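hey can u check if this looks right to u? its 296 residues, i copy pasted from the old doc so theres a chance i mangled smth
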Amino acid sequence: MKFENQVYDDLVKDLINDAFYIESRSNRGKVSTIRQYSEVVIRKLCDIPQGEEVTLGNLGVIKKLMVTSSNDKFLMSAVRKLQKLGNKCTHTKNPKPISDADVDSAIDALFKLYASLFILYFKKYNFGSSNEVVSVFSILPPIIRFFVLENIYNNDRKNLLVIDKLCLALLKAFDKKDALIWLNKRKSELSSVLPYTPEAISDIEVAHGKLYAELVVANAPANMYICCLDRLEKVASILEREGLLYNSFEQAKALYLDEGVLDNNSIENKEFNDIMEFVYLGRKAEINEKLSKRHL
């Protein structure tokens, strides 16, 4: 890889600090800094090394992004949004105030750039091919997970694990109502999908015998709609009692440092570790009492 995380460590810490941690910073300054930081994320996406110029408006950079992502609309629309907001904040022809909504829009677009790093990864390595990766993926903020899983689902509606995780990501990133709307819109489609694959049943047979596999099938939900609805109700009930374990990079960072670095025993793990390290660069860990209680 040409892009090295550590080369940009100091720069990213400064940009993240200026964009997210200085309370007195103006909205104009926040958006301008988010745009600047997004250029580092684009370097990461396109594997552009230090010394090569990167700006959001550069035609060569846009072409590289289009090639890297196969002209993915999700990514390209986020880049256009950041460019537009950045121009609004840096050019003096626009003297109007920059609103909180503008800042939120810039953060949303930035998070879609983050998500694109994982989307590209899961195009290379199928989501679910590594239980370890799926486990650590859950340490990301729910909104990032939602962006990633929705994109994967839109391109592959047969991945049962994606369906399950997407429904729960909707619940955690938004609320139960949104998750139910998503689920019920797809009731007909999901009702025709079994909640297990022939390969999974074969694996159970090999590990535990045919009789056990038959019991698993007999006790499984009738279809993925019922499976997701059941999971949604159970997790929603837990969240109602206990709240989210974490909802931001800052709340999750301690968990990432403790449990989020995989053994570099495969290329798949190495590449995932590299992306996770990058998205957590510069993020300050918040004290999270829920994480502390979790380890008691």
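The chain is about 70% helix and 0% strand.
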